[in-house]
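The following record pairs a protein chain with its ligand, calcium ion.
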Amino acid sequence: MRLLLVEDDDSLGAGIRDALERSRYLVEWVRDGALGLEALRSGGFDLAVLDLGLPRLDGMQVLRQARDAGVRTPVLVLSARDTTTQRIGGLDAGADDYMVKPFDIDELLARLRVIERRHRGAVANLVTHGDLEIDTAAMSVRLRGQAVALQRREFLLLRKLIDHAGQVMSRQQLEESIYGWDGDVESNALEVHVHNLRRKLYPGLIRTVRGVGYVVDALAVREGA
Ligand code: CA
């Protein structure tokens, strides 16, 4: 479990780092907001602990800019000041949890475990294909971190093609998956949905196989942990 710690206070940072390392985390510690944002954007972290009062870039800005850039790493925010507005601001900016200093290190560890469990549940519903991320539970789609609005049938069609990436799907298979078996399908409906998906996502995503159907090409698979 790789964890990014962004904290400018030397003794507090060292204390948190030591406790995290004793609890099996691989910790990378940076001491200002700009480095924190750079590290978050570079990816590769499973979790982050982020202080708010930081040199160069405020923690709230770090979080907001990271989320705007599509970074989905769970973040626990640490703050010296406890006001309700700040707490709400942090959660609105995309924090997964919020702790006020001074805090008990065991409570921090416990909350990180809760965030991990919650995030694993969410990740189980995520299907990714290159820059595309499909949340099968929420029926939502993100392209390079940006939400894309799809109609229900467009979503079902995309899901079917991605689930069978690398496999040419016949018109009949695709129509069944979006209309069911007895659906009254207009003859050009499938083409319209394919056209819309190419337009809303990107043109090369779905390839036409003349006389057969459609295919989303397989990507090299990168196994997750
Ligand atoms: Ca600070």
